[in-house]
Write a structure and sequence with these properties.
The complex is a heterodimer of chains A (334) and B (336).
Chain A: H1 2-31, H2 37-45, H3 52-66, H4 72-84, H5 99-135, H6 137-151, H7 155-169, H8 189-226, H9 229-236, H10 241-265, H11 267-277, H12 283-292, H13 296-324, H14 326-333
Helix pairs in contact in A: 1-13, 1-14, 2-3, 5-6, 5-8, 5-10, 5-11, 5-12, 5-13, 6-8, 7-8, 8-10, 10-13, 11-12, 12-13, 13-14
Chain B: E1 4-16, E2 22-34, E3 38-42, H1 49-56, E4 64-73, E5 76-77, H2 83-89, E6 95-98, H3 112-123, H4 129-142, H5 159-170, E7 177-181, H6 189-205, E8 210-214, H7 218-224, E9 227-232, E10 235-241, H8 242-247, H9 252-259, E11 310-312, E12 318-320, H10 325-335
Parallel strand pairs in B: 3-8, 3-9, 6-7, 7-8
Antiparallel strand pairs in B: 1-2, 1-4, 4-5, 9-10, 10-12, 11-12
Helix pairs in contact in B: 3-4, 5-6
Classes of the chains: A mainly alpha (334), B alpha/beta (336).
Chain lengths: 334, 336
């Protein structure tokens, strides 16, 4: 257990270091964009106002409120203190709505869309890959080219094709939004059905592009493991084939778990394309709006959430790995 | 003469390559191992030693296929038996195997004891975990392995320890024949000694009834086995008592093998090692006459004619050459 504690501590230190740097970049990068968001807000508010000094005063007031007139390091420390207190600031583009409020409304949509899609894609992909490795022959020969073709499809391409085929031509599913535009979120059957119908296209566009890659990865791992020496030895000790296949797939699965964790971690970023194309009200769509509106607090907060999710996913996977694969633990203990 | 534990008559097995060519890697091999005895199989890489080991178990999977011949273990003919029956009632219990690369023979993500459980339960589904643990720890103790090894993952064991663990697991069901395929070739000398001692202990304690030991290291064979068989290109070229095969080889190939042994001695650097030049023939198209003719120092035109048969040379001794024993001795004397 001591070796495992050491493993755990080392990993934790690394992840904290990564977090500090990522946090810093999350703050700085949006603020390096050219343009002045405060001027944009001022312009919006002072529309029709004729007095130059009046507009100047409004600008000063907003600059004071957002802290954009202070040196960047001072803004940073203020930001750190605020975030530590759970305050993500006020959105520029949707002033005076708080950032936390905007993100809170969209993150649920993203998780509900992405999480099941990733899991389903992962399960189907891995099962197909494992079957291809085990059955070989015709199944393998058909599945592999298709997988390679589909996995190299860009995400937007798949989304657009599905949109055109099932949304525009066949009219089976609606083309945009998270629910019917004429509905108000409420626990009625009509609303729930509308959500389910709107869910299908973004969901399957994400599932389809992830299946191919998973299947290819699983297939090569499983083929490698099926030819391992322990398989031959187990056979010659009279162990049943289904039991040996159990060993093989457990071992072949290990690298695939990393892939799963990574896609869960990068869920929000990955959602961007599907959410934008289907105008799905998730985090990716919100982030896009933030970037368009030069909304520093919104961009920083959204990227901060993405960072934290990626880090947590990676960290948990390293920890689980240490538990399920004795080789990792042994290597760390040296 | 003891009870015959393993008898093989004219066993032929082949590989079918990707291009549908047949490669007879074991070609009409016959052998016999008595209770309490061990047989060594020698030969260079690619001569069919390991394929013979795999073929002896009667459990074939592609690309290796059974062609003809009999394998009789303790009076029971297992050739032509249904693979499922072989797996259930022969492998592990009648005949057990120590693989060439024991380093990777254990599943890396499974504790040793769980593998032992799987092995025993494959043959006796009713065995409880407790019984298995008791049997395994007793057996490991007997073989000089600490029982803690059972609770470890293979990565936590050293190479020598892994090898000995694999041996201990292989013999856990008390097989009648143990096939050890180069069990010590990847180990340092200390571990090698321990492995050899372990195999001898197994024979002496009667945990295994007989053994086939495969290696390319002839001095080792002489120390461990009672009889030695030399293989070349899928065929037996010489078979006799260990001392005869090592110190008085008849077949030119055996003679060449013995001459290529490195024995530490003063002035070794000045000494010229006599290796056997050339490589074994391609078994997709074996030469029509003597398969060793291409590389034989004493080759004659008639060697390349018809296939060469095994001939008797002294008591319990056979070799495959067109020359008689006295002719061969004459040739060797003139060459020296």
């Amino acid at each position: 257990m001591k070796a495992y504690q050491k493993y755990f501590t080392t990993k934790l230190v690394w992840f904290l270091t990564t977090f500090v740097f990522a946090f810093l970049l999350n703050f700085i990068l949006p603020r390096l964009m050219p343009g002045d968001p405060v001027a944009v807000i001022t312009q919006r508010v002072t529309q029709g106002m004729t007095s130059q000094s009046g507009a100047q005063a409004v600008y000063q007031q907003y600059a004071e409120q957002f802290g954009t007139n202070k040196p960047i390091w001072e803004q940073f420390f203020k930001y750190v203190v605020n975030v530590a207190q759970g305050d993500l600031g006020v959105s520029f583009s949707q002033y005076p709505r708080p950032v936390a409020d905007i993100l809170g409304a969209s993150i649920g949509w993203t998780i509900a869309l992405q999480f099941p899609a990733i899991i389903v894609g992962w399960l189907i992909g891995n099962s197909l890959g494992a079957l291809a490795a085990y059955l070989k022959g015709g199944f393998d020969k058909v599945l592999m080219p298709i997988s390679i073709f589909v996995s190299n499809f860009p995400a937007f391409g798949m989304a657009v094709i599905m949109l055109v085929v099932f949304g525009v031509n066949l009219r089976w599913f609606p083309t945009s939004g998270g629910y019917g535009f004429d509905l108000i979120p409420s626990p009625t059957a009509e609303f729930v059905w509308s959500v389910i119908v709107h869910y299908q296209l973004p969901f399957w566009s994400i599932v389809l592009i992830s299946i191919g890659g998973q299947a290819i990865g699983m297939r090569s791992m499983a083929i490698y493991e099926l030819n391992a020496d322990y398989v031959k030895y187990s056979r010659f000790m009279g162990i049943k084939d289904w039991k040996i296949i159990g060993y093989v797939f457990r071992n072949a699965m290990l690298p695939q778990i990393t892939g799963l964790a990574l896609s869960i971690g990068t869920m929000v970023g990955g959602a961007l394309v599907a959410e934008i194309i289907f105008s799905y009200p998730g985090l990716g769509f919100t982030l896009l709006n933030g970037v368009v509106g030069q909304d520093y607090p919104l961009i920083s907060a959204a990227t901060l959430i993405i960072t934290v999710m990626v880090l947590i996913a990676n960290f948990s996977i390293e920890i689980i790995y240490g538990l399920i694969d004795p080789r990792v633990k042994a290597a760390q203990a040296d | 003469m003891g009870k015959v534990m393993l008898e093989v008559r004219d066993l032929t097995t082949k590989y079918i390559t990707r291009f549908r060519e047949d490669v007879y890697a074991v070609d009409h091999v016959s052998l016999k191992v008595e209770e309490g005895k061990s047989l060594g199989i020698a030969g260079e890489s690619g001569c069919g030693k390991s394929t013979l080991a795999l073929s002896l178990m009667g459990y074939y999977f592609p690309p290796l296929y059974y062609t003809s011949g009999d394998i009789i273990i303790d009076g029971r003919n297992i050739s032509g038996m249904n693979p499922d029956d072989v797996r259930r009632s022969i492998l592990g219990t009648e005949i057990a195997y120590i693989p060439q690369a024991a380093m990777n023979a254990l599943n890396p993500t499974q504790k040793v004891i769980h593998f032992v459980e799987d092995v025993i339960q494959a043959h006796n589904p009713k065995a409880t975990k407790k019984e298995i643990y008791e049997l395994a720890s007793e057996r490991f103790h007997l073989l000089g392995l600490p029982p803690e090894v059972l609770q470890k993952y293979p990565v936590e064991l050293s190479g020598g320890m892994k090898q000995r663990t694999v041996i201990a697991v292989s013999v856990i069901l008390g097989p009648k024949v143990l096939i050890a395929d180069e069990p010590s070739s990847a180990l340092d000398v200390t571990s090698q000694k321990m492995v050899i001692k372990m195999l001898r202990d197994l024979m002496e304690s009667g945990l295994i009834k007989s053994m086939i030991f495969i290696t390319h290291e002839l001095p080792l064979l002489y120390n461990v086995t009672d009889h030695i068989m030399v293989m070349y290109a899928g065929q037996i070229v010489e078979h006799g008592a260990a001392s005869e095969a090592v110190f008085d080889p008849l077949h030119p190939y055996s003679k060449g093998l013995m001459g290529s042994i490195i024995v530490p001695e003063a002035g070794l650097r000045e000494h010229k090692l006599t290796a056997v030049p050339g490589v074994p023939p391609n078994l997709k198209k074996p030469p029509s006459g003597c398969r060793f003719a291409e590389r034989c120092k004493y080759v004659r035109p008639e060697c390349r004619g018809a296939a060469v048969n095994i001939r008797e040379g002294g008591v319990g001794r056979t070799y495959r050459c067109i020359l008689t024993e006295s002719e061969l001795r004459e040739v060797y004397k003139n060459a020296a």
